[in-house]
Amino acid sequence: MVIRSFLVHSCRQLARRTLAMDTPSIDIQNIRAKYNNSQEPYLLEENLPTTDPFSLFDTWFRDVASQSDLTFEEINAVSLSTVGKDLRPSSRMVLLKAYTPTGFSFFTNYTSRKGHQLEENPNAAMLFYWPKVNRQVRVEGVVEKLPDEMAVAYWNSRPLASRIGSKSSLQSEVVPNRQFLESKKAELTDLAEREGSHAITKPNAWGGFHLIPRYFEFWQGQSDRLHDRIVFERDTDIWLLKRLSP
């Protein structure tokens, strides 16, 4: 009986896969987007406002933040890529919460998958993509944990609903269903109503990371695919500037 059930299940899976393969996929080969930055059509070395990559990032970030008709809201969303000791890369979107002349900061649960991977291997990469201006910035470097007092200060500045949501979740842990999370949320919501919002304290395993760059790449798209790629790479105490072929 068990063997029969297994065979029936396997046949159904095979039938579904066959049906999926027989259905034509969406034609994506001929999708072509036109890239155009009207303010600065080409990214030329001689026109750079600065040769300090941190200052250039600030210039680009302020520019995209000033756009009034963005197609997305979170301009500080960034893809963070990490690799643990198993050498299997992992990427996810996080929200950049600060950038300074030393690096880029974000907050997370240290027990999450990215937290474990960064503990095993502090090398990480970030990718900012702003399609409105046809630009992206790649940053590679090494992360350090932010001081706990900075994490506490940021935690306390967050909306109560965000704090409750974060504290309800053991990030990346397996849970039985959505209701499990909703129950945790309800418990903490009741606690906040009884004792005040200050009762939703920062979990010990929640904190911040600061990525210290050793590599920047400023990319500007061109419709003919001869994209501009300007790279800054740290050599001891100076940044070396070079252009890469697209």
How would you describe what is shown here?
The protein is of the alpha+beta class. The protein is globular. The model has no long low-confidence stretch (mean pLDDT 90). It is 32% helix and 29% strand. A hairpin with a 5-residue loop joins strand 1 (77-83) and strand 2. Helix 5 packs across helix 6. The protein contains 6 helices and 9 strands. Strands 1, 2, 3, 4, 5, 6, 7, 8 and 9 form a 9-stranded antiparallel sheet that branches. It has a domain at 45-147 and 206-243: Pnp Oxidase, Chain A, CATH 2.30.110.10.
Instruction: Specify the overall morphology.
Output: globular
**H and E string:** HHEEEEHEEHHHEEE
The percent of residues in helical segments reads: 25-40%
CATH architectural name of the domain at 45-147 and 206-243: Roll
CATH domain fold name of the domain at 45-147 and 206-243: Pnp Oxidase, Chain A
Low-confidence stretches: none
What name goes with the CATH superfamily of the domain at 45-147 and 206-243?
Answer: Electron Transport, Fmn-binding Protein, Chain A
Terminus-to-terminus distance? 59 Å
The CATH top-level class label of the domain at 45-147 and 206-243: Mainly Beta
Total strand segments: 9
Which range does the strand content fall in? 25-35%
Mean pLDDT: 90
How big is the Rg?
A: 23 Å
| Annotation field: number of helices | 6
Give the biggest sheet. 9 strands, antiparallel
Helix/strand-derived category reads alpha+beta
Secondary-structure blueprint:
Elements: H1 2-22, H2 53-65, E1 77-83, E2 89-95, E3 98-100, E4 103-109, H3 113-120, E5 123-130, E6 135-145, H4 148-157, H5 160-168, H6 178-195, E7 206-220, E8 228-235, E9 238-243
Antiparallel strand pairs: 1-2, 1-5, 3-4, 4-7, 5-6, 6-7, 7-8, 8-9
Helix pairs in contact: 5-6
